[in-house]
Here is the input.
Amino acid sequence: GIVFTRFNVESSQEVGGALDALRHDPSFGIFTLGYLTVYPMRQYFVACWPTLAFGPSLITLRLGFGLFYLGGYLSFLAGTFRYLEQKKAPEAPLLAAYAGIMAALGTFPILWARMFEQTILPLAGTFLLLGGLLFFLTRPSLLTSLWVIWTVGFLPYCYAPALATSALGLILLPILIFRYQALRLFPAFVYNLCALAIALRITSGCD
Here is the structure.
């Protein structure tokens, strides 16, 4: 397999560290650093499940990071379509597809993520947050609230670019809460603050 595709040794160590943390870390990576004790461990848990289920291989390593990205992308695509459809926008499917293509075909996901799989996690988390918020605005429910809460709690533990999306959440959530009286999003705002504070605290001594 490595003859035909680029293999990044960092990704294998990140997934291996997550598998070890699942067995020995009672905090499940919330207060633990992972690869080279630089990055928060929690982010690697989303990538280790295929390896945990089917054993270590190049395929499960790729699937671990790739499925999370695919799920985020599809949620963003579906959320955009649902929101535009509710607003009765003309050509809602076409506009949603265009938004998805513009976001997915940039240099970052096509080039960098193939070399360093960890770099795809911030984009996948951003897709998840936007998709969750769009679904919430379309039809507020407990499920979409939990979706947003989980995502804003995960983003601060991702690779550094995700901090920008986490900060965006701190701006967007209060606006949505006050404009739409969306009190169900208040726990997400609080959780975002707490997760961001913990992530910055555990990484404060890292270069």
Residues 58-86 form the longest helix (29 residues). The CA atoms of residues 140 and 182 lie 8 Å apart. The chain has a mean pLDDT of 86.
